[in-house]
Amino acid sequence: MKLTFQTRLIASFLTVIITCGAIATLVGVQMVTRGIVNQAQDKVRLDLNVARGIYEQAVATVRDTVRHTAPRFFIKEALSAGDVSRMAEELERIRRSESLDVLTLTDSQGKVLLRTRNPASAGDSLADREIVKRVLRGGGVAASTEIATIEQLRKEGEDLAGRARIPVVPTPRANPPQKTEQAFGMLIAAAAAITDARGQILGVLYGGRLLNGDYSLVDKIKETVRTAQIQELDG
Q1: Are the C-beta atoms of residues 180 and 103 closer than 8 Å to each other?
Q2: How far apart, in whole angstroms, are the C-alpha atoms of residue 131 and residue 142?
Q3: Cα–Cα 20 to 30 A to 5, which of 21, 50, 88, 207?
Q4: Interior CA angle at 18 toward 16 and 20, to 5°?
Q5: Closest C-alpha among 75, 94, 95 to residue 85
Q6: Each residue's pLDDT tens digit, 42-51
Q7: What is the pLDDT of residue 176?
Q8: Which residues are 106's β-sheet partners?
Q9: Which residues fall within 8 angstroms of residue 136, CB to CB, at 6 or more apart?
Q10: Residue 146's CB: how many other CB atoms inside 10 A?
Q11: What is the per-residue pLDDT for 214?
Q12: Residue 12 — pLDDT band, cuts 50, 70, 90?
C-alpha cells in the first residue's frame, strides 16, 4: 500500500523530531553528568585543601612549640652543666601544656639524655630520625610526619605504644588477614637545635604529637568542612 504524500511528510517530520529529541536528550544528559562530576570534583578538591591546610597548621604548631622551647636558658644551662635532671620537671610541664605526646632531649650526637614522658628510658640514639639528622647536620628546626614502630613508641611511653595498636577487622569476601593488628604510629614531629653563644650545637629538642587515637584533628577538619558547606548553601 502506497503512503500518501501527507503521511510521508508527517513521518518525515516525526523522524526529524525524534532524532533531534534524542540528540538533545543525549547532549543534555552529558552536560548534566559533566556538571555533576565537575561539582563533585570541586567539592572533593575543596575538602582536600581544607584538610591539608588544617594539617599543615597542626605541623606548624608542633614546630613552633619545639622551636620556641629549644632556646630556653634553663635547657642550655643544664646541658652545659651536664645535669639534665634539673630541667625534667619544667620540660614535662611544657609538654603537657602544649599537648605534646613526646618531648625528648638529646646531646650533640643525637643520644637521648631525657624523655620527659618516660625519664627512665635514655641512652639510645635518635640520630637516625630524618629530622634529627637534618638538625644535627645543619642546625635550625625541621618538622615532618613520621612513622614510628611500637618499639620506638614504647621508649617514649607504654601508653603511646598501646594507642598505636590498631586491630585488623575481617571483612566479608576478603581474604583472611595475615595480621591481627597493625602496630605503628603516625607522628607530627619536630626537632630544633640547641646552641651555645658561639652557635655550636649542644643538643636537639625533639617533640611530637601521636595521631593514633587522637580524633581532635579529624573532628576539626569535619567541622570546618561542614561550616563551609553551610555557608555555601546560605550564600
Answers
A1: no
A2: 6
A3: 21
A4: 65
A5: 75
A6: 666 666 777 7
A7: 75
A8: 112, 204
A9: 108, 109, 110, 127, 193, 201, 204
A10: 16
A11: 78
A12: low
Q: What would the pLDDT profile of 168-214 be if each residue is shown by its tens digit?
A: 777 787 777 777 777 789 999 999 999 988 889 999 999 999 998 87
Cell for 184? Answer: 605503628
With both helix axes pointing from N to C terminus, report the angle between 5-69 and 216-234 in degrees, rounded to the nearest 10.
140
Q: Is the pLDDT of residue 35 over 70?
A: no
